[in-house]
Design brief:
With about 120 residues, this protein is an all-alpha fold. The protein has helices spanning about 1-15, 20, 25-70, 70-85, 90-124. α1 (about 1-15) runs antiparallel to α3 (about 25-70), α3 packs across α4 and α3 packs antiparallel against α5 (about 90-124). The chain contains 5 helices and no strands. The longest helix has about 45 residues, at about 25-70.
Length: about 120
């Protein structure tokens, strides 16, 4: 629902852009380009807010579960601790860091392209 609310102003603005009403198709397309650049620039901010909300929800759910079933939670914690003690932690962390770097490169590229596009639109 939160994602839908974030798109409503952009959809209203796109709906209001009509080349037949203004008589200038080029002006309408320029407005749409700027609007899409703003939407692309907002993606990282919305992604961070979504991630923050999800982590907060997970922490709250975990806290509720621990309050409801403390002994089972304690057993799970010991089991996870034992497994992590037996795993080669260096290899696991190295794999996670490699996976993060692989996923981070396209995200940085998309963010840089959006900022470059926005800067080019501001110059015009």
């Amino acid at each position: 629902m939160h994602r839908l609310k974030a798109h409503v102003p952009a959809l209203i603005a796109l709906n209001n852009l009509d080349a037949r009403k203004t008589g200038l198709e080029c002006e309408s397309l320029n407005d749409m380009d700027q609007l899409s650049a703003e939407m692309v620039a907002e993606f990282p901010e919305r992604g961070m807010q979504w991630m923050k909300d999800r982590v907060e929800a997970a922490v709250n759910e975990t806290g509720e579960y621990v309050r409801e079933k403390p002994t089972q939670s304690l057993l799970y914690a010991f089991a996870v601790g034992y497994i992590l003690n037996r795993l080669p932690l260096r290899l696991v962390l190295g794999g996670l860091i490699r996976l993060l770097l692989i996923a981070l490169r396209p995200a940085i590229l998309i963010y840089g392209a959006a900022r470059l596009y926005k800067a080019a639109q501001e110059r015009e």
